[in-house]
Amino acid sequence: MSGILNSSIGRKFAMALSAFFLMIFLVQHFAINILSVFSADTFNEASHFMGTFWVVQYIFQPILILGVIFHFVMGMILEIRNRNARKIAYVKNNGNANSTWMSRNMIWTGGVILLFLGLHFYDFWLPEINTKFIEGDMSGTLANGEYRYFEELQHKFVDVWRVALYCLAFVFLALHLLHGFSSAFQSVGANNKYTRGLRGFGKAYAIIIPLGFIFIALYHHFNH
Ligand code: HEM
Question: How would you class 170 by CB atoms within 10 Å of its CB: exposed for 0-12, middle for 13-18, buried for 19 or more?
């Protein structure tokens, strides 16, 4: 593994693989969260399953967290190496000539997503760990026997500032994904007759998923 990560192509390849993994996570995260718009009970059931099934808790969750850390650290390394390799800095106001704003600012859009994750973990993940492992309520039920997930979700989106911060972060997520998707395909060498179709799919993904998250946040803000 360290051999692969010692070469520039190896590092880009590993970065792309971690990106695909996170993109798959994002789809499943969206699929569960969108349930909250249609049925509180179904959302509760799905969250309860994810929150208590040992494979998810003790295998997928640690892999996911390592995946996020790896993607972040690797992104920093690639950025620093690119900057050092680029002896003469880009002429800033001529940047549009050969690259997009998104491609030149992946480190910043990624940084905003990381800040969002800090807030998001504070909002949802820490209370979850607290309820399950500190208070010891592994089954995740309220006093009246119902699951608590939907109620907690709605409660979080009452505050207009939190909703605004979340929505802003989702816009940055879209910008990050707009370049990230095509860049990741480039890094794994998927430059063939499917490229056009893949590019279209990547653009759709990068816009639909963040828009969907914006919809969920706004929906719960206006319907509680
Ligand atoms: C409206 C949008 C969103 C809602 C309502 C939401 C909701 C949640 C909830 C309820 C949890 C707690 C899961 C648990 O029980 O541990 C969670 C965890 C998490 N969310 Fe989100 N989320 C949203 C958007 C996002 C986005 C855009 C990302 C990534 C950029 C993200 C990344 C994560 C991660 C990494 C976790 C920790 C997963 C784990 O439990 O291991 N979320 N989210």
Answer: buried
Q: What is the pTM of this model?
A: 0.90
For 94, the token pair is 């001529």
Q: Which residue type sits at 70?
A: F
Q: How confident is the model at residue 93 (pLDDT cuts 50, 70, 90)?
A: low
Higher pLDDT, 134 or 111: 111
The SS3 assignment for 141 reads: strand
- Ligand 1: distance of its center to the CA of 29 in Å? 7
Tokens representing 89? 């800095």
Write the residue with the smallest CA distance to atom 11 of ligand 1: 124
Instruction: Name the fold adopted by 2-222.
Output: 3 helical TM bundles of succinate and fumarate reductases (1.20.1300)
